[in-house]
Design a protein that fits this description.
With about 140 residues, the protein is α+β, with helices and mostly antiparallel strands. The protein is built from four helices and seven strands. The chain has helices spanning about 5, 55-65, 85, 110-120, and strands at about 15, 25-30, 35-40, 45-50, 70, 125, 135.
């Protein structure tokens, strides 16, 4: 699926909120090394994610058929087993590892990708102070 128009551009990015609704960040599609990537900007920090994560995570959630805990964690910290974060860095996912593309900033997949998927109508996300989860729509 082409998400470019829906997600936005560098000049006109999509503004989202983290699952607890406590912080805003932006997301847009850009090109890096000839491939489309998701560019997530949190304050002055810029994270890059493989755009294929949207379809791949949607398929995984459909297969699970139930709520999956988000479990967001920085790259340097281990991800809780069975969470979206753990799946986003697992050797058993479709890309065989990290969907995050910027070494040192490859984590937080479970924080920034779920709200985008909710915006795109691909998933439902809970919005508690902590312990949030998502499931496929």
């Amino acid at each position: 699926m082409s998400y470019k128009e829906t997600i936005g551009t560098k000049e006109n990015p999509l503004v989202l909120k983290t699952p607890p609704l406590s912080s805003e960040y932006t997301m847009h599609v850009d090109e890096k090394d000839g491939k489309q990537v998701l560019v997530c900007t949190v304050g002055k920090t810029v994270l890059l994610y493989d755009i294929n994560c949207l379809d791949d995570l949607h398929q995984m959630l459909k297969k699970q058929g139930d709520w999956v805990e988000l479990g967001s964690a920085d790259e340097q910290k281990p991800a809780k087993v069975g969470t979206v974060e753990a799946w986003g860095r697992s050797e058993s996912n479709p890309v065989g590892g990290w969907y995050g593309l910027k070494k040192g900033l490859r984590g937080r997949f479970g924080m920034y990708i779920p709200p985008l998927m909710e915006h795109l109508g691909l998933a439902e996300v809970t919005h508690q102070k902590q312990g949030n989860a998502m499931k496929a729509k």
